[in-house]
Prior knowledge:
The structure is a single chain. This protein is of the alpha/beta class. Helix content is 35%, strand content 23%. It contains 18 helices and 26 strands. The longest helix has 17 residues, at 46-62. The two termini are 43 Å apart.
Amino acid sequence: MKKFSQNTVRYYRDFGEFITEIGSHYRGRRALSWFTRKKEEQSRTYDELIRDVEGLRESLCARKLAGKHIALVGENCYYWLVTYLACTLCGAAAVCIDPEQPDEVIRAMLLQADVSAVFASTGCSGVCGPVLEKRPEMMGIFSLNSQTEQEEMAVGRLCREGSRLLEQCGGKTGFPVELDPEAPAAIVFTSGTTGESKPVMLSQRALLNNASESNCYVDGGIKAFSALPFCHAYGMTCAVLATFARGAELCFNGNLKTAIRDMRLSGAYSMLAVPLMGEALHSQIWLEAERHGEAEKLRGLLKKMKFRGRFGMKKPCRALEELRRKHFGTLRVILFGGAHMNEKCAEEFRHLGLTVLEGYGITECGPLVSVNGAEWNRQGSVGRILPSCQVKIEDDEILVRGSMLMSGYYGMPDESAAAVRDGWFHTGDLGKLDKDGFLYITGRRKNLVVFKNGKKISPEGLEMRLRQIPLVKDVMVYGAESGKAADDVKLAASIYPDPEQAGMMTSYEILEELQQAVDQINDGLPLYQQIQMVNIREQRFEKTSLQKIKRHTV
């Protein structure tokens, strides 16, 4: 097996050690920045962040919330991060809940996780209110947004209150807590793409090891940008904690409507994103080229770069460099996760001079399992396995074990035992490893379409091909019943057309054009892999906040 270079990283026993070390090593540096709706930049240094975290930790302990389950329900904001870190410092578990879930699902998650207090954004406070009636022992609902001294339940006030308590004790805590590296630091709900979300317990050691190793293969530079939700493991571990672990600055976004704007304003070197954001940027580039009558010129330049790339000549021309700066600002590296990136988009981004990397993760693994490195990026793969992680393929399924593995699903012992067997977590994802240790994802076990002749097919590969059709905005391939038997199925594609590409076309014209494109794809496939039904959706697919289709709802 070839040898591949990797960065040296520091490992941490628990969040107490982590907070102490980043505070002393990176004193004075900017830790976080974000933009208001009016494009005004806000920021906090590591000193300011840690002062607020330690202050809030003291307030939580004073309210006897140390070691409890504390929920966070809200959009990305500064005090969301402060609350999360303060929870970990007092031995509590931060219960991370996606605010985009239906109201009844949010309330069910709060009850399922046995929370003792809720920190919610203004828009989510009312949603969480009814839970107080069912759990009268709860401390109450604190505000993540308000910073006023007048509001008793505002996080900003609690931070300052705790800071005063520390000052009175000469800077020492009045509530010492012995942190257990194996105790849950966070409870993160799975995305629920194929069914009900499950509460994943991730220990202090698991999260911090995974955050440290997120920096093993990728150099994110001195400033990174992320619009990933903090409530998901990808956004918290790989974006927030990994950035702090190397003493860099994270510019975050809390509103997807302004994500691309903020990315360009940020001055960041790297970005962590889901493929949907990359595809949105790709569409913007081509729509603008079409509007200015420069699409043919751009195609020519990209074709030239593709040809030059065969001879190892990768530096883009001046025109493509200018295009990159216009649409991506200072960005040089983009790391995509959460789903497979459209290969055409990724290739064209590379021709613009961007380093495009893909990784693979799953909530139960902290989440990162593998990632490509800038110096050894193998296209089509999701990279090499992290140092403290082991992967094996059994019956085509990816199995994982290592220090970053979950402690189990909270309150679900049977499901935990079914997921982790003999120390190996069964991901449900299908894949393969090459001789150099690069991992390739081939599908999802639960999505497999099984035919009555015993043949099986993963729909993800076909979906990737269909997304290359300009008229396709999003697509899901599935097995449609065509007889009485459960395995008497034929392949069908449910397609949501791109409104901008469709323009004034009628439904009949859209279907006709789509069918012609599907027929061309079918021509190069075995009969059992050919799509036999195409239906058009009028509404977008229901998705998770990481923009994965919720297949079970379609």
